[in-house]
Amino acid sequence: MKKYLLTILIIFCFVQMVFPQEDDGVVSLDLPIRNSLVFNRYDINPTFSFVREQNKYFNISNKKEWTQFENAPETYIASFSGRFSENVGAGLAVFQQNYGVLTTFGGLLNFAYNVKLNTDSNLTFGLNVGAYKSGINMSNVITNFDDPALQNVPSNFLLTVNPGINYGTEFLDFGVSVNNLVLYNLESSMLIEDNPKQGIQAHVMHTGYFNGRGFFDDTKFTTILRSEFRKDETIISGLAMINVPKGLWLQLGYNNVYGVSGGIGLNITKQIALEYNIEKSIGELVEFGSSHEITLAYRFIAKKKYVYSGDEKVSGLFSKKRNAVAEMSQEELEGIRERAVKRRKQAKLDIEDEEKSKLEAEAQAKIDTEEKSIQEAESKARLIAEKKAKEEADAQVKLLAEQKAKEEADAQVKLLAEQKVKEEADAQVKLLAEQKAKEEVDAQVKLLAEQKAKEEADAQVKLLAEQKAKEDLVANPNDKLGKSLKEVTKLTDDSKAEQLKLLKEFDDIITIKDKDLKDLKEENDLSDKGITVKPRPFKSVTAENNALNTIMSDLDNVIINRNDKIEQLQQLNDERSKVAGFKADEVTVYYKKEIKRLQSEQLSAVNTKTTLESRLEIIRLATEYEKRRRIKRAEFDNEDDRYSQDRAMLQNIKRTTELSNTPLKAEDFDFGEDQGSNIKILKNINNVESGYYLIIAVHNDVKKRNDFVTKVVASGRTNIDYFYDLNTSKYYIFYDKFDSINQANEAMKSKGSRVYNIKMSLVKIEN
Predict the structure, then answer these.
(1) Which CATH class is domain 2-216?
(2) 124, 300, 629, 690: most buried by Cβ count inside 10 Å?
(3) Phi and psi of 550, rounded to 5°?
């Protein structure tokens, strides 16, 4: 009994740490995977499925905390995560956490996306989304009495969101994440506001490599410092890891709440790895004992060498040696070549140093040789003397041992014979006693089982009868106030459909107005680009607004009516609870819950109406703005504005047009007005320099001009340009200009066979 009470006490203390009191047993997401820099790193920060990662992993982890006690917290995780492309990392995990009688089960989805800023600078965004179910595991509850504290804890299905960001350089990473930013209870359809595990976490991490030799060649070292700031506490922790490419890594860590930790990992093969971590509690948790974590992983070796991966090499302690050069990618070979150049430079410097000290070493070696000869002679004489003394001592010890062994053997034989006779007698007595005890126990067990079965059957019958009586009382209250509650509740529920219908009609009209706004904006945008669109059919805005006003008025009336009914229900229930005998009966409790449900529905409807009104106001303001744009466009009559618009359209075509997959033919081009073979002279052309221009097309229609320029860009020429002759209202399209007539004629002769050049002519501009 003491054992059970102690277990319940420990569980209660843990529940106080992870459960918000006001949220009826809601558990915050808090996976205790904090002591590894190799596996499940995305639990530290959502971006870590990508940051400093090269491969993908599938791993199974188990962590048992506070092993000093039975039924201590235990966590199981199965995870698949890692680098999936040059800019994407992702992970998927399934987990179960057991806190004695409490259990959570669910999954975690991770995604990380990287933006490369420059050669040694990256910005990575990450997100963890968890969905899990929490509640009491009644199969683990062992008490001799009904505990209301456990029976009143409901099951919950929760959704949590944890975003993060990381900025990385060549060796450093800085990041921030928000743990349990959003915690939503799907069972109650409510957002958990008071979450003790909600906090902001910041980290700084350094990753580097040792220039060792042999077994420690290219050894990787990583250190990370983390701080998490919660409402009621601040957690500061740090981890350091050394990773030897031959297949071994070591970890040390400290956490101001959970204590110190150490771990070791090894690559059994290149794909299979095993890791073990131990965590020693400190402070208030020291009496709870240590925590143990073990992970078995399978590594999917990436065929492609990704950048920003840490340049980590992987090999197994027990893998067969193979041709390393054959397994390396081109990127790895380039890295080896660079390191070889650096090592050759360093070797050259080492050789120079060696030559300087070579003479000193030879002199010292001569002295050492003479001293070594003297020491060897003395050592040889000492060994001969010690050998002789040892042989004499061994002979004496052997003689004494043989004599003692014979005496002990004789005594042992006598003792075994006496012991065997005694054991046979004891065994016979024990067998008879056990047989009698078993018969008595079986009879007692049978009697208790029959008694227990009868008690359980009687209790079940009683429980069903009580439950049916409660349901009948709720469905058919026998008092006047109870009947009024039932009637008003039905009327309130009946008006729900009308309220939802009006909200739907409100949303439909807003959707129509939003579509009209987008059409007007599109028309204005196209007109700004020089594209004329057909005017849209006229529609009656007045009729639409009148319908909207009617819906809003009807909606306000329905909401007010439902609010009055809910208020009436509240008053009736309060009045009934004051009557003697009705304060806590089933009818009062039932309608208390119904009132909360109706209030929640009404709050949701009011919020929806407020949101729709906000959308309507935004659309109204945006529509007024677009109407002003249309008026302003209609007043457009300025040459400078036309020139700015032409420049913007040209840049847009060049920016958005892609190369054609198939070569364009001459019939695909509209060259506009034919200029003939003579040189044409134009004077007083604005925004263009004097000179000789190679004209390839002439248009007075903006759409045709844009179409011709687009096809030239799609053919591969990007230096296309045009100017406008205000006198003739024509656009002259060109791609080259010369200062002399001779240069222009040579360019005409060498124009080649490009299809857009077939009607090329010369135009001279004199300003």
Answers:
(1) mainly beta
(2) 124
(3) -65, -45
